[in-house]
Amino acid sequence: MSARRRPVPASAERLLAVMLPRAIRDDVLGDLAELAADPARRSPRSWYWRQTLNALWPPTLLALHLEARRVAHEPAPGEANRGRNFNEVLISDVRHSARSLRARPTFTLAAVSTLAVGIGATTAVFSIAYGVALRPLPYANADRIITVCERSRSTAASLCLLSPPNMLDVKRRAPSIEAIGLGRRWSVSIGTPDGSEPLPGAVITPELLEVFGIRAQRGRLFRESDMIGGPSVTAVISDALWHTRFGGEQVVGRSIDLDGHVVTIVGILPPMVDIPGLEGVAIWRPLHIDPRDETHRDWAGFAAFGRLREGRSVAKARRELAVVAASLRTDHFSRTAGWDLSLVSVADLVLGKARHLLLFFLAAVVTLLLVACANVANLMLAQSAGRRHEMGIRTALGATGARLVRLQLTESFLISLTGAAAGLGIAIAGVRAFKHFAPPGLPRLNEVAINATVLAFAIGVAALTALLFGLVPAVRAGAVDTWRILRDGGRTGTAARGRFGPGLVIAEIALATTLVAGAGLLTRSFAALSGWNPGIETTRITTFSLFAPMARYRDPAQLASLWSAVESELRTI
C-alpha cells in the first residue's frame, strides 16, 4: 500500500521559506502545516497554495516583515521604549490595512491597477528622459565644452563644421576659449595577412582629446610634433581594437600597416571614448594637413570642440566669436552669402530637440498620473462613505482622530506601494519596447535603463501619490461625528463625499480633456508628417559609402577607372 500523500506541497513550502522573515518563519510554516493536515480539509494542497499566495501579496508580506522585526526586538519586561511602541502601533496599522484591503478585492484591484498604469508610465518616461536628456554627459567639465560652427545660407541646419584655418583664428582671437581642437572621420585600411581590412578611423588635432579630458591608458596621446603636414607616422588605437585585434598584448611601439604606410602605435585610449560625431572610431591619427595652409580655408569638413576658461560664460564667448566672424567675413568670406560663426554648447549639440520633446512627454504622463490619483481619491471617498459606521465605532471605543488619519494613510501607502511594484513591471516592459522601436538617431539610447536613480524616483512618486489621493479621505476619516453615526445605525449615502467629490470630478475632466486634446494634436501632426511629400522619390533608394585605399589608387586615372567599374557593376544588379 502506497504511503499517504503529504498534505503540504514542497514547492510552496520552499517558496514561503525563502520569502518569510527568519524570526517568524518556523512558526508560520508549522501553523500552516498543522492546519493543512486537518482531516476535515478536503483539498489541503490547494488550500496551502492559496495561503502561500495570500502571504506573498505585498501588503501582507510587508506586515509579516514588520511583525518579525517586532518579535526580534521584543523589549525586556518593564523596559520603556517609545520607538518600539511606535513600531508596534505601525505594525498594527499595517495589519489592519492589509486585512481591510483583502476584504475589499474589487476596490483594491481597481485602485492598484489604476495607479500601476499611472506610476508605470511615469517611471518609464522618466527613465527615458533621464537616460537621454537629464543625466549629465559623460565628459569632464561638460558644462564648459562648446562647439564652433560655420554657417551660411547654403549650410544645412544639422551640420556643425569648421575649417582648420578658421579654427586657428578662433583659437588666437577668442580669449574665453581655453583650448580648441578639431577632427573628422577618415576611414583607413589596416594590413592583414590576407590583404587589408577597412576600419573606422579619424584624423584629429592633439587638443581635441584634451578638450574632453581624455588621457591615454597606455602610452601617450598626440603631440604638436606628430602633425607634420604630410602622411602621419603615429596612431592611437581604441580599447576595443586593442582587445579584439591585438588580444590586449603590449602594442605601444609596434608598427602596423595603414593605407600602405608604416605607422607606429604610440598610445591606447581608455574604454568608452565617444566624442560627438566620432563615435565608434577604432584608429585615431593626427591631422595630416597643415592647419595654417590658406588653401584649406574653405574646407569646412571638421567638427571643432573647445573648452571655456574657468569663470567665462557662453555669452561672453559668443560676443568674442562675433568679432572674429566679422573679421573673417571681411578678409575671406565677403562673397559667401550669410556666412557666420556660431557657438553651441555640447549638451545642445548632442541632445538637440530630443530634450524638449522628452520633457513634454514627461509632463504628459505626470498629468496622466494626476488623473489616476483623482480616480483613486474618488474611489476612496466612496469607500469612506460606506465605512463611516466603522470609524464611528472605533472613535467610540477610544480611537483618536490622529489614529484614524494614520490608519487611512497607511492604507493609502499600501495601495500606492503595491501599484508601484506592478507599475515597475510596466515601466521595464515600456523601456524595452521603446528601445526596440526608438526613432533612429536618438542620442544616448544605450544609456536608458531602470537603474538606482529611476527606482528612487519610482519610490518617491509612490509616496507622493499616496499623499495626493489619500490625504483628503484621511482628513475626513479623522473628523467623524460619532454621535450622529451611531444614532443613524450605520446608514450611509453618497452625500458623505461632501464638496470634495465634485471637485475631484472636475479636476479629472479638466486633466483628461487636456490629455485628449494634446494627443489629438500630436496624432494630427504625425499623420500630416507621414503623408508629407518631399518632392522626390524616396522608395527603393539606399545610400552607402566607398573608400579607395590610397596605397593602391594613387593615380587619379586609377580612381576614375575604379568608379566606372563600380557604376557598371551596380547597373547590372
Please explain how this structure is put together.
With 573 residues, this protein is an alpha+beta fold. It has 18 helices and twelve strands. Strand 3 and strand 4 form a beta hairpin. The protein is elongated. It starts with 9 loop residues before the first helix and ends with a helix. The model is unreliable at 76-84 and 492-497 (pLDDT under 50).
Short summary:
By secondary structure, the protein is α+β, with helices and mostly antiparallel strands. It has helices spanning 10-19, 22-36, 44-55, 58-72, 82-103, 105-134, 164-173, 206-211, 239-244, 314-331, 346-351, 354-386, 388-396, 401-437, 452-477, 482-488, 500-530, 556-572; strands spanning 145-151, 177-185, 188-192, 195-199, 201-204, 218-219, 234-237, 255-258, 261-268, 283-286, 303-308, 340-345.
Task: List its salient traits.
573 residues, alpha+beta, ten-stranded mixed beta sheet, two-stranded antiparallel sheet, 18 helices, 12 strands, 54% helix, elongated
Helices, strands, pairings?
Elements: H1 10-19, H2 22-36, H3 44-55, H4 58-72, H5 82-103, H6 105-134, E1 145-151, H7 164-173, E2 177-185, E3 188-192, E4 195-199, E5 201-204, H8 206-211, E6 218-219, E7 234-237, H9 239-244, E8 255-258, E9 261-268, E10 283-286, E11 303-308, H10 314-331, E12 340-345, H11 346-351, H12 354-386, H13 388-396, H14 401-437, H15 452-477, H16 482-488, H17 500-530, H18 556-572
Parallel strand pairs: 5-10, 7-9
Antiparallel strand pairs: 1-11, 1-12, 2-5, 2-11, 3-4, 6-9, 7-10, 8-9
Helix pairs in contact: 1-3, 2-3, 4-5, 5-14, 6-12, 6-14, 6-15, 7-10, 12-15, 12-17, 13-16, 14-15
